[in-house]
Design goal:
Strand content: 35-45%
Distance between the termini: 52 Å
Largest sheet: 18 strands, mixed
Order of helices and strands: EEEEHHEEEEEEEHEEEEEEE
Structural class: mainly beta
Number of strands: 18
């Protein structure tokens, strides 16, 4: 894989933030040398990428039913139990993030995007953009906070959406922690056959948004695009970020699973 420096563009500030870190190594798999022009020029893999010490909060579209609340009242407060409960009941996982306004009420979600070259000739990644499919008011059904510990470092790349924009490019993160130059105006990424690259992508928004990624490629000098959704396919379920996280009284029910307490319970405020 080759990464070289290119031209730069001005910074664009916005409301929804996507962060990407290039990581070489994960997602490698046994692949056959044979390739077919009928398959896409890159193989795509997507998986969630949570910091289990920090990313332990969920919001729900609807209030938890009585049966689920009863289950929660007897649920152990360890991480795996809380993750299993929230997943089973349709919780949208997030951690809080601070935007330019300094308000730390935006939801942050994260995943890893793996791209593997599937051509004998060189495949060049020319850009990665995020595209909003739908924008809604944030959900207020229920809020669940799980056990947390530790802290997290700032990631070195960012992709931005303006409040009314629908498409934005991946950007680098400046030394001051603010979005800077367009990532693929600084670097060119080339993939040989079966060569992988992994982007860790963090999304931050104050709107509840469904969105997808568009990976722009140059294959044998011809421009191509690959759409990526949450299951790694171009037509699957979109990625989603639940948006602004309100104060607990706004929700129909708010619950806390705290380290040192035997079971989860209602959140007091």
């Amino acid at each position: 894989m080759a990464i070289v420096t290119g031209i730069t563009l001005p910074i664009v500030l916005a409301v929804v933030v996507f962060v990407a870190t290039v990581v070489i190594g994960p997602f490698q798999e046994d692949v056959k040398e044979g390739v077919s022009v009928s398959e896409p020029p890159v193989r795509v893999g997507v998986e969630e990428s949570w910091n289990e010490d920090v990313d332990m909060e969920w919001v729900f579209d609807r209030p938890l039913p009585a049966q689920a609340v009863g289950e929660l009242m007897s649920l152990p407060t360890d991480g795996p139990s809380v993750v299993g409960f929230a997943t089973a009941h349709g919780g949208l996982r997030f951690s809080k993030s601070c935007l330019a306004s300094a308000a730390c009420d935006a939801a942050r979600t994260r995943f890893k995007l793996a791209l593997t070259g599937r051509r004998r000739g060189e495949v060049r990644i020319t850009d990665i953009v995020g595209r909003v499919l739908e924008r809604r008011e944030p959900p207020k059904g229920a809020l669940l906070s799980g056990p947390t510990a530790g802290a997290e470092e700032i990631e070195p790349g960012v992709l931005l959406f303006g409040e009314n924009s629908t498409v934005e490019r991946l950007k680098s993160l400046g030394e001051d922690g603010r979005p800077g130059r367009a990532y693929f105006d600084e670097k060119f990424v080339h993939l040989a056959l079966n060569e992988p690259i992994v982007f860790e992508v963090i999304t931050v928004s104050t709107w509840d948004v469904d969105w997808e990624l568009v990976v722009k490629l140059s294959v044998d000098g011809k421009a191509e695009e690959t759409v990526v959704r949450s299951d790694g396919t171009p037509t699957g379920k979109p990625f989603r970020n639940p948006g602004k996280i309100y104060d607990p009284p706004i929700y129909e029910g708010s619950y806390k699973c705290k380290v040192g307490v035997p079971t989860c319970g209602p959140l007091r405020w």
